[in-house]
Structures are given as structure tokens and as C-alpha cells.
Amino acid sequence: MSISVEEVRYVARLAHLDLSAAEVQEFALQLSDILQHMEAMKDVATDDVEPIMQVLDPAVGGALTTPLRDDAVQVSFGTRLAISNAPDPCDPYFRVPKVIAER
Q: Model-level pTM greater than 0.85?
């Protein structure tokens, strides 16, 4: 399976990414390679593999809980930086389309 240039452009548009023609070509090749590797995984014999419920197996030293970072106060990046990538900012707010009509 391969990813076409049009599909890369479509996904880039959905993600609001401005990709050059060279980047589109590069991503199409890289994503196609990833899909080829995933297709190869279908051929791996897994009939004798026991299903597991945990990704981290405590029997081999894995943790049963998700490691968390320390809960510490950090400096915020501020309103202007927070809305800088919004498609339609209205300082100091995010402007969003109206979704509830008045009666």
C-alpha cells in the first residue's frame, strides 16, 4: 500500500500544515514505507503467542502504574502565545464558529 501525494496534501490541509512540494514527496515516501512495514507484520506468526492485558509486564520488571512527573508549579506561556496558532484569534480569546442557533 502506498500513500499518494494528494493524500499527503489532504492530511496536511486538515492539520493546517504548509508543506513544500519536496516535503510532500518526502512524507509520501516515508508514510508509504511505514505502511509497507505494517503490511509485513501481517505475515508474522502469532498463533502461539499468548495475549497479554498489559504492555508493561511486571514479571519482567515493568511497572503496573504509569510514571508521572512531579506536580510542580511552572511558568505559563501566556495568552498571546496560546492563541498565536489559532486559525481565527481575537485577542485575548479564541474565536470559534457559532454552533448553537438562537430560537
A: no
